[in-house]
Amino acid sequence: MFFQRTLKKEISCVGIGLHSGAKVRLVLKPAPSGHGIKLQRIENGVVLTTIPALSEYVVDTSLATTLGREEQVIGTVEHLLSAFSGLGIDNVLVEVHGPEVPIMDGSANPFVYLIKTAGVRRQVEAKSYIRMVGTVTVTDGDKWARIGPQPPSSDASLSIISHIDFDHPVIGSQSYSFSFSDVAYDRQISRARTFGFLHEVEWMKSNNLALGGSLDNAIVLDEFSVMNDDGLRFADEFARHKVLDCFGDVSLMGMPLIGVLEANKTGHALNHKLVQAVLAKTEAWERVTTGELRDHSQTGFAVPRLVMDGS
Ligand SMILES: [Zn+2]
């Protein structure tokens, strides 16, 4: 049986907010079973609001995923949520001392490092999952996302297949297929950085957006090539980053998923639409705990070995 997980101890870091350019302190704190992931917006030591990492609190998906409550917002949450989900962490209180989660290097890897440095503690209560039994599809023009049941023969909990197609010589058409198990998230997904095009970056900066954006926290492409001196971390880093974003965005369902998610040219907006559509179509899924999963002989998944703690 797999139990809920939190951190062994508090850990913090400081980074730059991508859109605000502000220096932001981030503190990750252990939390009890059933707490879930919650983010606190803190300003000058005062807690302005506490926002559960659930889709009902999503207020904007245009440039990043932004959560809001009581007229306060916390931006750019998706890479941090992706790291929690990717390492199977259920319960954390996140203090965000600024308007958005720091962008770090544009991937989820610095958050994975923080979590592994704090250590992972197994808790006493079993995990609950959303297991897909039907299919849900959302579309927006030629973009679409679909989630359906995992075949009984699969030993993965969540599989994500991402297709992208950019009319750019470095990107072109890419697909990445990921089955969540063992250390796969850490090794294959967490290091993939966000990306943008130089003309977009220039437009955003002239509109007071992406003020903290630089070659240190994104892959930037000009008309023909990657501008970063060190190039890419993977030839298909772009498609891998879409999987990373998807992990973070679908974690806003509030429980880990068992299913197969296929996404074509999606972004945060369509990911959010998919989450809402799944939650609304209750006949397409069932809530199961890890104890019940054993009875269905689906137990071989979702345990990232790197962060195992005797579970
Ligand atoms: Zn991203």
Briefly, what is this?
The protein has 311 residues and is of the alpha+beta class.
Describe the structure.
It is a single chain. The chain has two domains: 3-126, lpxc deacetylase, domain 1 (Ribosomal Protein S5, domain 2, 2-Layer Sandwich), CATH 3.30.230; 128-307, lpxc deacetylase, domain 2 (lpxc deacetylase, domain 1, 2-Layer Sandwich), CATH 3.30.1700. 22% of the residues lie in helices and 35% in strands. It has helices spanning 78-86, 109-118, 184-189, 198-206, 237-250, 268-280, 290-295, and strands spanning 3-7, 11-16, 23-30, 37-43, 46-52, 58-60, 66-69, 72-74, 92-97, 120-126, 128-132, 136-140, 143-148, 158-166, 172-179, 195-197, 219-221, 257-264, 285-289. The strands form five sheets. Strands 11, 12, 13, 14, 15, 18 and 19 form a seven-stranded mixed beta sheet that branches. A five-stranded mixed beta sheet has the order 2-3-9-4-5, covered by helices on one side. The chain has a three-stranded antiparallel beta sheet with strand order 6-7-8, with no helix packed on it. It is globular and about 50 Å long. The termini are close together. Mean pLDDT is 90; it is low at 295-311. The structure holds zinc ion. Zinc ion (ZN) binds at residues 78-79, 194, 241, 245.
Under the CATH scheme, which architecture of the largest domain would be assigned? 2-Layer Sandwich
Q: Name the hetero compounds present.
A: zinc ion
According to CATH, the fold-level topology of the largest domain is lpxc deacetylase, domain 1
CATH level-four homologous superfamily name of the largest domain: lpxc deacetylase, domain 2
Instruction: Specify Rg, calculated over alpha carbons.
Output: 18 Å
For the residues shown, what is the average pLDDT?
A: 90
C-alpha end-to-end distance? 8 Å
The secondary-structure element order is: EEEEEEEEHEHEEEEEEHEHEHEHEH
Total beta-strand segments: 19
- Secondary-structure-derived class: alpha+beta
* Domains, number: 2
Uncertain regions spanning at least 5 consecutive residues: 295-311
Biggest sheet features: 7 strands, mixed
**Count, helices:** 7
Q: Which outline best applies?
A: globular
Name the beta content range: 25-35%
Q: Percentage of helical residues?
A: 10-25%
